[in-house]
Amino acid sequence: MDFNDNAIRRTLRSALRLIAGKPAPTLLIGLLLSFSAHAFDLQQLSDQLAKPSVIHGNFTQEKHLRALPQPLVSKGTFVLAKDHGLLWLLKTPLQQDYRISAQGIARRDANGWQLLPNKSAGAEQNRLFLAVLQGDSSGLQRDFELQLKGEANDWKLTLIPRSLLLKQVFTQINIDGGELVQKIELLETQGDSTLLRMQDSTAAQPLSDAEQHDFAQ
To answer: What pTM was computed for the model?
Structure first.
């Protein structure tokens, strides 16, 4: 055995004596505090997603139906404003504008914005999108069990329905993102699914005059 081996052994013995001399709870608390200091939690995610005042971006939505061999694809743009809500502007395969806010879901027609019945098709899904994009984890926790993995620039949030009503519609919802939400996947109990990709999102642009007008109506 050479000098280096002896030095290594002495160092290991010293380290083991130091650890052995600490009460187990102290060690455990130290490890937990160290982990907590680096863990990315739901509150941090909520704060991160709620930070931008306005987000503009493009979206591609794929609706996968069991009865169809190819998904139904729609594309458009969106505007998310913290103090106003969400403008969801469908461009293809048809043009249709939606607004989601605290007042409900509205659709634009020749006469302007018209509020839709709360039980209209897709209403709950659209409210869910708004809660996710705004980082409203407290709102989501009322209806879902939330499981978060990853870190601030690369995370995955899984939503498992709590209520019987939601369990009849969704098996789970997967949300992926970084600084902003990038992808939302809704898995339905009947085997259908929806995949929504948020592309080219930016928080660098304020609301335009036209967008402010749309939210104000």
So the answer is: 0.76
